Amino acid sequence: MGDVNRRALFTRQGKYQARVAGAVIASRAPHSSTADVEAVPGVVFTDPEVASVGLTVREAERTGRDVEVADYEIGHLAGAVQYRPDYRGRARNLIDRDRQVVVGATFVGPGVAELLYSATVAITGEVPVERLWHAVPAFPTISEVWLRLLEARRDS
Ligand SMILES: Cc1cc2nc3c(=O)[nH]c(=O)nc-3n(C[C@H](O)[C@H](O)[C@H](O)COP(=O)(O)OP(=O)(O)OC[C@H]3O[C@@H](n4cnc5c(N)ncnc54)[C@H](O)[C@@H]3O)c2cc1C
């Protein structure tokens, strides 16, 4: 496990593989890891931060995946203005058109790294988009971007 197998060269992925390997040894988990390819989270810790998990548009095109794309200006959210009055940022979701599940998310803006785990849960859990409407984000928070992305897709 870890860098040596060349699957995903990050500390977090090595730790993930270690958990899977440990569970396999203990015979308590499926004998394969599943989040090495489809849901590797990444953050560029710059100002603003860039956080991404799953597919980007370019990767979807390269691998022939049919996706719907939704974009939203995070700075329009009340939660963002509360976070920083001059907040500027952007969010993008990729939805698999056939399966109707989120397959990619990218966020740019101050503090967006904290949005990444919710995106990772949505992708690894293969949560149907219709169910995401029922995941109510607290107001006013930047998490409301999830709702706005659903609305942007619906209204496009
Ligand atoms: C500059 C830089 C920045 C990074 N930033 C991040 C980040 O922000 N977030 C993130 O998730 N990942 C980051 N990474 C990647 C992360 O460091 C690696 O993915 C992670 O350390 C891999 O852990 P590992 O245990 O698999 O391998 P390693 O950490 O390389 O550990 C392998 C160990 O095995 C030892 N070893 C090698 N050969 C032998 C031998 N024959 N006998 C005994 N011991 C041996 C080595 O000395 C080493 O201690 C970064 C990497 C670099 C280089």
Looking at this protein, list some descriptive labels.
globular; alpha+beta; 33% helix; 156 residues; Enolase-like, domain 1; binds flavin-adenine dinucleotide; five-stranded antiparallel β-sheet; 6 helices; single chain; 2 domains
Number of strands: 5
* CATH third-level topology of the largest domain: Enolase-like, domain 1
- SS field, number of helical segments: 6
Which strands sit side by side, in order, in the main sheet? 1-2-5-4-3
SS strand fraction: 15-25%
Radius of gyration: 17 Å
Oligomerization state: single chain
**Superfamily (CATH H level) name of the largest domain:** FAD/NAD-linked reductase, C-terminal dimerisation domain
User: In the CATH hierarchy, what is the architecture of the largest domain at level 2?
Assistant: 2-Layer Sandwich
**Small molecules in complex:** flavin-adenine dinucleotide
The outline comes out as globular
Rounded average pLDDT:
92
N→C terminal distance? 43 Å
Number of domains: 2
Q: What is the H/E string?
A: HEEHEHEEHHH
Structural notes for this entry:
- The chain has 156 residues and is α+β, with helices and mostly antiparallel strands.
- The chain folds into 2 domains: 36 residues, no CATH class; 118 residues, 2-Layer Sandwich (Enolase-like, domain 1).
- The protein contains 6 helices and 5 strands.
- The chain has a 5-stranded antiparallel sheet, with helices on one face.
- The longest helix has 15 residues.
- It starts with 10 loop residues before the first helix and ends with a helix.
- The model has no long low-confidence stretch (mean pLDDT 92).
- The structure holds flavin-adenine dinucleotide (FAD).
- The site of flavin-adenine dinucleotide has 8 residues, from helix 1.
